[in-house]
Amino acid sequence: MVADGNTPAPPERLWRNPEPKRNYDVVIVGAGGHGLATAYYLARNHGITDIAVVERGWLAGGNMARNTTIIRSNYLLDASAALYDHALRLWEELPEELEYEFHFSQRGVLNLAHTEQEVRDARRRAFANELNGVDAEWLTPDEIAEVCPILDTSPNLRYPVLGATYQRRAGIAKHDLVAWGLARKCDEMGVDFIQNREVTGFLTDEDRVVGVRTDKGDIGAGRVGLAAAGRTTLLTDTLGLRLPLQSHPLQAMATEILEPVHPCVVMSNHVHVYTSQAHKGELVLGAGIDTHNGYAQRGSVHVVENQLAAAVELFPVFARAHLLRTWAGTVDVTPDASPIIGPTPYENLFVNCGWGTGGFKATPGAGWVFAHTIATGAPHPLNEPYGMERFTTGALIDEHGAAAVAH
Amino acid sequence: MMSSSNPNRLNASVRPGRIDRTRTIHATVDGRAVPGRPGDTLASAMLAGGDIEVGPSIQRGRPRGVFSADCTEPNALVQRLDGDCPEPMLPATEIELQDGLRVETLSGVGWLSEQRDTAGYDKKFVHSDVVVVGAGPAGIAASLAAARGGARVMLVDQHRELGGMLLDGQAHIAGHPATEWIGRAARELAENEQVRVLTRATALGCYDHNYLLIAERRADHPDAPPSPTIRQRLWHVRAKQVVLATGAHERPLVFADNDRPGVMLASAVRSYLNRHAVLPGREAVVFTTSDSAYSTALDLLGTGARVPAIVDTRPEPPTRLVEQVRAAGAHVVTSAAVVATGGEHRVSGVRVRGIDGNGSLTEWSAEFPCDLLAVCGGWNPAVQLFAQSGGAVRWDPVVAGFVPSGAGGRSARVVGAARGTYDLAGCLAQGFASGAEAATLSGFRTAPPPVPQVDGDRQASRPRPVWLVPDESRSPEECTEHFVDQQRDATVADIHHALGTGMRSVQHVKRYTTISTGLEQGKSSGVNAVGVLADALSAGSPGEVGTTTFRPPYTPVPLALFAGRTTGRLYDPVRTTPMHRQHVEAGAVFEDVGQWKRPRYYPRGNEDMHAAVLRECSAARTGVAVQDVSTLGRIEIVGSDAPEFLDRIYTNGFAKLAVGKARYGMMCGADGMVLDDGVSMRLAEDRYLMSTTTGGAAKVLDWLEEWLQTEWPELDVYCTSVTEQWAAVAVVGPDSRTVVGRLAPDLDVSAESFGFMRFHETVLVGGIPARISRVSFSGELAFEVNVARWYGQALWEATMTAGSDLDITPYGTEAMHVLRAEKGFVIVGQDTDGTVTPVDLGMDWAVSKHKDFIGKRSLSRPDLVRQDRVQLVGLLPTDTTTLLPEGAHLVEPDVSRRPPVPMAGHVTSSYHSAALERTFALGLISGGRQRIGEVLCAPVGGRDVEVEITSPVFYDPEGARRDGPEQG
């Protein structure tokens, strides 16, 4: 690990900036990580290249540009573990496949347990991971100290670290470079990126979607895939289609560039903060959503204070690092905090949304299954459980619920 | 005119400076002593000593020098080594010189030390009528006007003294030096009790609804007490009105080798001259695009420095300025630009070329020797705070900068240089007007004071920004020595490279080149990058390209400041019961449950947890045991609609519960999943006392309030947390009746008079009023004795005394867990996980079929009535000594172990049982109730543990023990 502030030698060309055609086989709304990965796998796996990815702002400028870049697959529930581990396996292939160094670093993720109940929950998750073929280890405080010496594992903490799950294959990647690498390959395969054009609604023929309306004119489409994260409901509302989503600010923050000090990723639910050190050398920190709803990409300062207090508590060495920048994205959260990926009541309209705080790590996996769903009109086995009908049937994928309830 | 130890320090007769010449103090930079005066910054002291070069650049190792005199400094970054904990990446331009200050220079990367930061940080939360950010002329004027109107005013400035850029120059106000006006204003503000002036305080963030975050530095400066208790303080301020007088930052210029040590912002040169009496160079070329740098030239000439040339990009700079500098001995080269610098570790000369109206170089050229090149690329209004809170900015071609768009954006008003007003009279006028207006709008009607006469200050003539001075031979794509962001070593070539890849957005270019991602966060590099980009894209103006997003904090601050006192012992309040000391004395081992410390077990002698828990359980089953249950959440629910409310909240009915009775209740989320449980008593027709789990109390109160406030505001119900008003013990076991009988002599505790799920109020021995209920979480005869918190210790003592001859045994949470598990009673959060319904737990009896309640509709959804849902069952390892790990999953014995292995469910609770004389567990198993007697496997640590599925009730299934032994 080198904190030289370097980014890898940049490529000569990433994407064209074409004028949109009148019609496309597929229009993807949103050029975030998921929109890009969907276009990529539509082209790669399904031979569909007549695609426009329409983006209201700049390519990968939403949550893709704002997340804490953590990648892991050590989820408890079968449906989650299968989807996220599929994504992780794709992550492992992507640097070579995209011919683009995006600093995918499998430096390991520690999920800390601070209470007896968290120990039970974490061990349950590790046991489940093992049976699901997801790598997971249970570490004692002494073993944690070996993996991450700067973490305070002393019993004197207000909430001492009682143990942790450790996924060695987990880690981080440089989010922007992931997006650019995907975009470059898509562009090579003929995908059009239409930036600075806001999709405002849909062209419909009765219950069939036949294109999108934008602030600069209509674009016809055989099929439309929504990958618009926090702004999804603003679009589905135009069809009278109500999705069980709430948009919240999610904040993250970074320090100045520092010599390497933090060797892995540490996540704590109880002392709520996630930390890692980016390739360039900044400490990157995040935690949970702001509880209020909003689209403003601005959060509240007390949320930042709580995270930083947690960070300094767990990592005394961070005390004099400087907070350089805080920011917020807008995340869309479903009642069970798992995504919705699948068809809609409208023919030819498909949604991928509701990823909440977990979207980045799923990027290639989400793209893979969403591309399958759009190309075939039916969900991939991995996203079969993720249809919106589960909120009617009750077959929720409540990873959050299953992960932690205080007693 | 120079002193020898500080060769570049000007004599007081030439420039007094705002330094204390009576004292010499010393800092150490890279092991070398740097002398200076109180009032110096580290950078000014270094410059006074002739040191301009600092650490080499981050990626290319190029020599770099002190470039600015403020927070935009890209090069002079140091690691502070003195004090109790090293601190990385501090600009030398912002560090106040102190004796003992010790630093090392950095190259854009700092480091963290393992030394613990023992300094104090705290926070203060205040309200104010008017907050003024920035104590330059506009900010001072605004504060004076608002304060004279009677408003509570807070004036915040990042420097040690008021004055802002007035201190960098030599302006006169009302016929006197501006410093006299500042001094009078400072005294007036100090004498007004309604005014708080915070210096060395940086407004970091401006949030919605006039919420400001301010970092105050109370240590690390010469005026600080020797060992300040608080190093830095974070102020949270809610203001009625905010006036942003945040000033402006000078822009660098982008030309070949513009990063050479000795190239310095013109405003910085002037600041060092006038504030610190330091002449950073003897022979200074001035390169400018606007009027302000002429003042630098005049100040340089006035102190005896040579100014070989003033290079102005404009064809016709204002005649009066040209004449002024000519009279002082310098000449102006118009329509010209510096195209190259010479020298290695210090600029030795510049090459100048003509520049035409299109920005192309003309044939004319000249060379000038110099050891200092003062550059002015124009000014960036400091719109950061304004924009952070959502204010929009627009490009103003007249001031050549991004200014707040509209009258003042959101509720903050922006005045002075921060909105592109650079003349002193204009700043004062705006300041007075905005201060008066802010006071008036916050309820203190007042008129702006008259603006005093200002000398020698005119409205600036129009600048001519040049975003990129062309290279003499290379195309922009090849401009690899035209630095746009020195800290990041990012150049014009990098921007063009980004464009070549297809990027068009300033946000992409920022991320690709990393321009503006350093400490200065674009204050200095940002607009130049936009300008270069606008030129390259042939955009009409930088406004078409736009800015990147402005984000808090305004300047970097230690993470520890945000943590404040929320650290160590105070990280989260530790809650203890009134009996805590008695538990400590009894040798209890504690466990964190929510914020509470609860005794987990009470080892005797050399007992481990296992032995202690077996003993404690035995006592409860065969004699009498006592647990402190004061931590259970208690919410008093009062109002004529309280019965209806509880009926809606709980899955089972409470409206018909008789006064004097208690009932176990379960509550679900809207999804039908178990949320919390507990016993609630009906104290009166309109009054219940609800108990919750220890960890769930706050969440449940929030839950109740959410329904009352957002969904059912029509209900007449009030909820009050009374957890900490009560102390309680559970007295458990066959002998508990005897103990409680002694404890409450006036109470008939017989089974006939005191039925299960009843409560009575009485007076205990010693005159303690108490409420005693008969509830049981162990299956044994049990009483819960509740007293006012004040009597907690007395209650514990009395109970122990009453049971002393019966060997009354205190027990902890672990034994409690075992006892309840033997009876198949669930712990919400342990045997449930947010995906479990009451029906899954086999608690259909607690789910009303008749009334509506939260979650009812969900419970009938198809997935919630599946036969193969997980269900609570008992689990008995075939080997009676094997303890199943909690969290282990169970699989069919014959299933293939190739992942993914189908899982039948998992172990939620697992213990050794004294009563059963074996291990046992509870678990959630798919279709479990139909599978009693079947055997499953728990793969654990590479081997399989065989487990039989059983009923979850292991002990006294018929409930014979609940009422205790036959009396008589």
UniProtKB/TrEMBL annotation, chain A:
Residues 26-70 form the Rhodanese domain. The keyword Nucleotide-binding applies. It is found in: Cytoplasm. Its EC number is 1.5.3.24. One of its GO terms (molecular function) is sarcosine oxidase activity. One of its GO terms (cellular component) is cytoplasm. It is an enzyme of class 1 (oxidoreductase). It comes from the Bacteria. SUPFAM superfamilies: FAD-linked reductases, C-terminal domain, FAD/NAD(P)-binding domain. Its cofactor is FAD; FMN. Keywords: Cytoplasm, FAD, Flavoprotein, FMN, Nucleotide-binding, Oxidoreductase. Coiled coil: none annotated. GO terms for biological process: tetrahydrofolate metabolic process. It catalyses: sarcosine + O2 + H2O = formaldehyde + glycine + H2O2; sarcosine + (6S)-5,6,7,8-tetrahydrofolate + O2 = (6R)-5,10-methylene-5,6,7,8-tetrahydrofolate + glycine + H2O2. Belongs to the SoxB family. This is Sarcosine oxidase subunit beta. It comes from Actinopolyspora xinjiangensis.
TrEMBL record, chain B:
Binds 1 NAD(+) per subunit. Its EC number is 1.5.3.24. GO terms for molecular function: nucleotide binding; sarcosine oxidase activity. It is an enzyme of class 1 (oxidoreductase). This is Sarcosine oxidase subunit alpha. Residues 482-564 form the SoxA A3 domain. One of its GO terms (cellular component) is cytoplasm. Keywords: Cytoplasm, NAD, Nucleotide-binding, Oxidoreductase. PANTHER family: AMINOMETHYLTRANSFERASE (PTHR43757), AMINOMETHYLTRANSFERASE, MITOCHONDRIAL (PTHR43757:SF2). Coiled coil: none annotated. Its cofactor is NAD(+). Residues 871-956 form the Aminomethyltransferase C-terminal domain. It catalyses: sarcosine + (6S)-5,6,7,8-tetrahydrofolate + O2 = (6R)-5,10-methylene-5,6,7,8-tetrahydrofolate + glycine + H2O2.
